[in-house]
From TrEMBL:
GO biological process: phosphorelay signal transduction system; regulation of DNA-templated transcription
OmpR/PhoB-type domain boundaries: 124-189
GO molecular function annotations of the record: DNA binding
This protein's record includes keyword Acetylation: no
Descriptive protein name: Transcriptional regulator
SMART domains per the UniProt record, alphabetical: Trans_reg_C (SM00862)
Key words of the record: DNA-binding, Transcription, Transcription regulation
Keyword DNA-binding in record: yes
InterPro entries the record matches: GAF-like_dom_sf, OmpR/PhoB-type_DNA-bd, Sig_transdc_resp-reg_C-effctor, TPR-like_helical_dom_sf, WH-like_DNA-bd_sf
SUPFAM superfamilies referenced in this protein's UniProt entry, alphabetically: C-terminal effector domain of the bipartite response regulators
Amino acid sequence: SSAQMQSAAERVHFVQGGQWREEFVGTNALALSLKTQQSSCVFSNEHYMESIHDWVCYAAPIIDPYSKQTLGVVDLSTTWKNHNTLGILAAERCASIIQSALLEQQRQHLHIRAFSTPQVKFNGKSLLLTPRQIEILTILALCPHGLTLEHLYQALYGERKVSMGTLKAEMSQLRDILGGLLGSRPYRLLVHVEADFLQAEQALDAGYVASALQLYTGVFLAKTESPFLCAWRDCLESRLSDAIFKTQETDLLLKHLAHFPEAIDAVERLMELLPSEHPAHQLLVKYIDSPKLS
């Protein structure tokens, strides 16, 4: 932008971190595009704020190709004297270029399995990774907005005495393996990610207990020492246990118990749901007193 427009933008706080939603500054093109997911043009005194009555703004939303959520807005602003009917087309073209780049980026695919036996696939091909590298990818999948090197170090190692250089070397290797689709400052995954643990979390959020238990094929990264991942695992297991105690589906609980014989929460919930005269009830009483669950 010109020095004149940049100075004008700063005077009305149209800068990074500025708040331009309608409830704060009234009618403006950026807010309209965010709200409607459509292109918009606001001319001169159509703006609510008198301080930008000299402006004309063209805005076009950036839509995620897969989720269809609005990621942001391209806004082109100038003075009303420089108004051009091609302004809205220019904003739309910029947004389209960004969306095309996102689509190409998301065609790359990373799949992480962290329940049972950990495995990572990139574009359908299994990767030979160390347990530590799988942990790093899992942490970044759980933190899609990214982490600084220091925060990633704490999440991965906690109080363990490991040099920062070791982590930097791991990140360098992962960047090579993923073809550069690992961003830095902050560290983040620049690729579409699917993961069994994310799907299980989403299923629990939506109240789909059966789906969550079906995805839970084994302990989440059972051997990890990462304080962040251990805490996340504890939280997930607590949520699963809570969901088990709330479900009314005995068949679901029996199926879960078949895969996890030591699932005491499933046993106790079945004993609550099944009448005492049910043939399985007495078996459960004996089962809960068995050495296997003691």
